Amino acid sequence: MKQENERQDGQAEELNSKEERDSIRESGELTLSHRIQLLTVIGEIEGHECLPGNSKTTKYEHVLPKLAAIEDSSEVDGLLILLNTVGGDVEAGLAIAEMIASVSKPTVSLVLGGSHSIGVPIAVSTDYSFIVKTGTMVIHPVRMNGTVIGAPQTYDYFRQMQNRILGFISDHSGAKRERLEELMLDTGMLTKDLGTILVGEDAVREGLINEVGGISHAMRKLYSMIQKEKERTENS
């Protein structure tokens, strides 16, 4: 009987391990201890069109339902987001950022290799944000692939999209909108392009990110926020 129970326990552990591996492979998410959900935003953020199969992507149709499930789950107390993204589809990136910002549970983000372009709004959408010393954030104007019609309406559309991005970043970080526009239109840093690269402490100095730190800092901050949220709930 004891051997049978041990065999069943082993099978259950193997099944759980397989489910975790599949979850990481498909959507880059994992449930950590202390009821914390881990979500990764990596590679290029994929929008309505599928990217080549050899590209590392974050699919918004995977991320949005997962965020909804996290908000609805009584078994999740906090959300940790790891970012290493080159950016990607603007609409998809803003949708993910808005979804994260509306999660009622404590949220913390950590920028690792980089969080560029539309990855910037996602990085600042959490309650608290970290960036490693060598992490980078690139702020630049909206780009568009394919045919572009040379008409005033096209310019207005680009301007409207940039205003949406700038507005979200300034609303969810300590960076001023005017300063963000200066960084976005800087001509002296990026070769053959406009924009600014912010490395580690530069991102903190500009008010985009709260603090320079690594995974231990991010986890410790999230634990603290979860504890404060529990105390607030108990006292209310």
UniProtKB/TrEMBL annotation:
It comes from the Bacteria. GO terms for molecular function: peptidase activity. Residues 1-27 are annotated as: Disordered. One of its GO terms (biological process) is proteolysis. Keywords: Hydrolase, Protease. This is ATP-dependent Clp protease proteolytic subunit. It comes from Candidatus Choladousia intestinavium.
